[in-house]
Amino acid sequence: MIDEQIHKRINELSTEEETLYRDAASGRLAPAELERLQVIKLELDQSWDLLHQRDALRSAGMDPDQARPRPIDMVESYQQ
Asked: Which residue range forms the structural domain that includes residue 63?
């Protein structure tokens, strides 16, 4: 996976997240949409983590394509 693909996915998720937040502000968010918003947050964290891994590998003179998405629970534990 190349950086441009990851950035594209981040942009898509961010756009969807913004739409859901706008709907939430107007009080029009269904339970399924609230759940989707939580999933988006996790996917964004995972995507950013993957980009950071790629940058770290590249900085160390290694192949950035060795980076792999980490499990959500691992990525989320970094924030605690």
From this structure: 3-77
Instruction: List C-alpha distances in Å: 34 to 5, 29, 31, 56, 62.
Output: 26, 7, 5, 33, 39
This prediction has a pTM of 0.86
Count of CB atoms within 10 A of residue 50's CB? 21
Number of domains in the chain: 1
Handedness of CA 29, 32, 34, 38 (dihedral sign): negative
From first to last of its 80 residues, the chain has per-residue pLDDT tens of 599 999 999 999 999 999 999 888 888 888 899 899 999 999 999 999 999 999 999 999 999 999 999 999 888 876 54
The one-letter amino acid at 42: L
